């Protein structure tokens, strides 16, 4: 009987950007993989703790519970079991069950067939008497199964852990593995390569899967007909669910005129690609649309569609949702349509910079559709591929290679990059490697020496990457239909794009007037970044040159100086490190020059509108406070962020959080208002204006 998977399973894209369909990318070390597939496959390796041996009088709720318990006990003790006899009565149904060791009894004597190709397979049965017999009783209308006989005496050797897992009873291919095997087989992967992929995905050594290569081969052969039937059912499910998704978009548009969506159909008039966004997202883009991260990490196994999300960064460093798309394939044509549609949603305004995965097809689409937009391939998308491509090839040299690659990524000079790249390729013998060739061909989009000065608004950081990952986990928790997935995206986007109310300290750490003035203008996120640069600038010295420019260098470092050009007529400052062009926050070198020139306030042009606090409803404490109070504020912020993340997973959670949080905050507010106002000196809070 054929069946269609009831779950919408999302996995990381594994198609290698090198273009070789037989080449794949694995993601190692991700202990919190968001896809349901990887969560399920890890469960099989979990062993139960020491078990109590079955005994006469032991009670089970059902015969299946008893069989499962005895099976777990058998595996822990080096053997497997099978169901032997059962007895049936008209009143009780099956009322006796016999479970025995897999080597119980003897093989029946069969007459050998004539012919030269008969294979005489030796039986493993040897008359073992280990067993567990059960009897059912009905007590107060409730059925219970009692152990009436038990023996753990075997007449054969028991197996070690690494042997017992290979017994046929335990060599089971679980549902998630079955879907993965069928997907890889359909893509043309040979059986031995499929086994290798599964081992890498699970992070286990070769030969440690709970099934053998021949089990995979037999499974694929037996399922060929079923696969064809399933494909027909899946195609029907995809068509029905994509139509449901389209209807959901139409209904949302009728209820909310600010909602936007678009789609394409194929030659059979069936939905091919579909994208959508929300009014709040479009409004947020007007302020924060200078830089966009286009995440194309995940693909649905069930629907065979790629999910893409356009995400920005707000003035507090948090991800902000702009829109999303589901694509049938990963061709340049599909990516081009997605980009055209997104820009249409955003009223024709293109971002200054777009950050993406390592994907030549997407790169070509960006060049075609967004010719004035700079593309950056983020390092957190590149490193998992580097970690997948080179460890096996380089072996013990991989750690050294990875260190050199990281150093190359951070180089400031393109000339230094080209020189050291060639040296690295020569040292590690990678001259003919297709992945090294690919990385080099895309170097102008990822190496710091080439992308320095592209505006990224502090997006390429570990903290931002983790925040995006948490946001996507909330979306991919909806493992059902596309319509339910659509609803989940709406919930997550609504929570992500709502104004966040925080109480956060902005403590002064220097005596510089520049710091005090900046605190009145910038959000805490931007202020903390500028404050750090101010503090570090104290370790730098500025030497004025004849042309009015400055060489700024660290007091301990001989090399690594930065050139700062100062134009007094326009109060313009430019640093060779290009930090301001990249993040919108002045660097330590430029600040050193402003301090030396006795500036008490930075020129207004160096406070970008995206980093100003006017658009945020926030409380700021302008005074120093004890450390324990500061810790309390940090703890409060952490709890709040965790609450919003956890509640975004389902609509039920979201509704419950909103309902209960409103009641609790109202209760707390009333209690605080009833408290005395003069028991201690009040803290001075200043409320920023709401935008």
Which class of secondary structure composition applies to the elements? alpha+beta
**Bulk shape:** elongated
- Rg is 32 Å
- Mean pLDDT metric: 83
What fraction of residues sit in β-strands? 15-25%
Intertermini distance = 60 Å
The biggest beta sheet reads: 8 strands, mixed
Poorly predicted ranges: 1-6, 29-49, 617-627, 679-691
Number of helices: 24
Helix fraction bin: 40-55%
Number of strands: 20
Protein name: Protein FAR1-RELATED SEQUENCE
Subcellular location: Nucleus
GO cellular component, one term: nucleus
GO molecular function: zinc ion binding
Descriptive tags:
alpha+beta, disordered N terminus, elongated, single chain, 42% helix, 24 helices, 8-stranded mixed beta sheet, 691 residues, 5-stranded antiparallel beta sheet, 18% strand
Describe the structure.
The protein is an alpha+beta fold. Among the domains are: 58-106 and 123-165, no CATH class; 171-255; 380-493, no CATH class; 513-620, no CATH class. It has 24 helices and 20 strands. Strands 1, 7, 8, 9, 10, 11, 12 and 13 form an eight-stranded mixed sheet that branches. A five-stranded antiparallel sheet has the order 2-6-5-4-3, covered by helices on one side. The longest helix has 32 residues, at 224-255. The chain is elongated. Residues 1-6, 29-49, 617-627 and 679-691 have low confidence and may be disordered.
């Amino acid at each position: 009987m054929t069946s269609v998977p009831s779950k919408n399973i999302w996995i990381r894209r594994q198609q290698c950007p090198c273009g070789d369909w037989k080449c794949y990318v694995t993601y190692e070390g991700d202990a919190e993989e968001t896809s349901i597939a990887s969560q399920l496959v890890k469960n099989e390796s979990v062993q139960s703790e020491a078990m109590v041996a079955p005994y006469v009088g032991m009670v089970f709720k059902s015969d299946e519970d008893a069989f499962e318990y005895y099976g777990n006990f058998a595996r822990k003790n080096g053997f497997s079991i099978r169901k032997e006899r059962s007895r049936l009565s008209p009143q009780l149904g099956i009322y006796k069950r016999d479970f025995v060791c897999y080597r119980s009894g003897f093989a029946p004597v069969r007459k050998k067939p004539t012919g030269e190709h008969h294979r005489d397979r030796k039986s493993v049965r040897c008359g073992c008497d280990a067993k567990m017999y059960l009897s059912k009783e009905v007590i107060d209308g409730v059925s219970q199964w009692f152990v009436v006989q038990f023996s753990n005496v075997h007449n054969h050797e028991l197996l070690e852990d690494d042997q017992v897992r290979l017994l046929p009873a335990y060599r089971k291919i679980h549902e998630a593995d079955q879907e993965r095997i069928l997907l890889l087989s359909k893509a043309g992967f040979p059986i031995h390569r499929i086994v290798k992929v599964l081992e890498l995905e699970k992070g286990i050594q070769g030969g440690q899967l709970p099934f053998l290569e021949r089990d995979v081969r037999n499974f694929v052969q037996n399922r060929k007909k079923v696969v064809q039937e399933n494909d027909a059912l899946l195609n029907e499910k995809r068509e029905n669910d994509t139509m449901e998704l389209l209807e959901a978009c139409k209904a949302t548009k009728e209820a909310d005129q600010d909602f936007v969506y678009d789609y394409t159909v194929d030659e059979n008039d069936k939905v091919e690609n579909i994208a959508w966004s929300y009014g709040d997202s479009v409004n947020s883009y007007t302020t924060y649309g200078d830089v966009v991260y286009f995440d194309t990490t995940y693909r649905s196994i069930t629907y065979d569609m790629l999910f893409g999300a356009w995400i920005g960064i707000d003035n507090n460093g948090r991800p902000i949702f702009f829109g999303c798309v589901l694509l049938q394939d990963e061709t340049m044509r599909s990516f081009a349509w997605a980009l055209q549609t997104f820009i249409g949603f955003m009223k024709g305004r293109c971002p200054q910079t777009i950050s993406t995965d390592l994907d030549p097809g997407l790169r070509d689409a960006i060049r075609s559709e967004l010719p004035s937009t700079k593309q950056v391939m983020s390092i957190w998308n590149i490193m998992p591929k580097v970690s997948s491509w080179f460890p096996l090839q380089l072996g013990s040299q991989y750690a050294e290679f990875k260190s050199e690659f990281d150093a190359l990524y951070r180089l400031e000079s393109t000339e230094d990059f080209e020189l050291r790249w060639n040296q690295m390729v020569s040292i590690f013998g990678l001259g003919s490697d297709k992945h090294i060739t690919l990385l080099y061909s895309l170097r102008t989009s990822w190496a710091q020496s080439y992308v320095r000065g592209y505006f990224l608004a502090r997006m390429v950081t570990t903290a931002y990457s983790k925040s995006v990952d948490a946001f996507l986990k909330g979306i991919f928790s909806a493992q059902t239909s596309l319509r339910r997935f659509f609803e989940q995206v709406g919930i997550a986007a609504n929570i992500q794009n709502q104004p966040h109310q925080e109480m956060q300290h902005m403590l002064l750490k220097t005596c510089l007037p520049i710091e005090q003035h900046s605190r009145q203008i910038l959000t805490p996120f931007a202020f903390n970044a500028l404050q750090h640069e101010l503090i570090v600038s104290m370790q730098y010295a500025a030497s004025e040159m004849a042309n009015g420019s400055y060489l700024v260098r660290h007091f301990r470092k001989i090399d690594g100086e930065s050139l700062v050009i100062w134009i007094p007529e326009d109060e313009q400052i430019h640093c060779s490190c290009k930090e301001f062009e990249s993040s919108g926050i002045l660097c330590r070198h430029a600040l050193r020059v402003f301090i030396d020139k006795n500036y008490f306030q930075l020129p207004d042009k160096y406070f970008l509108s995206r980093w100003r606090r006017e658009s945020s409803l926030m409380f700021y404490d302008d005074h120093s406070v004890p450390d324990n109070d500061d810790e309390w504020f940090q703890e409060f912020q952490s709890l709040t962020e965790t609450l919003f993340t956890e509640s975004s997973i389902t609509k039920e959670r979201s509704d419950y959080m909103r309902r209960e949080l409103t009641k609790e905050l109202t209760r707390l507010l009333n209690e605080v208002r009833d408290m005395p106002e003069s028991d201690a000196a009040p803290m001075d809070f200043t409320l920023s204006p709401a935008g």
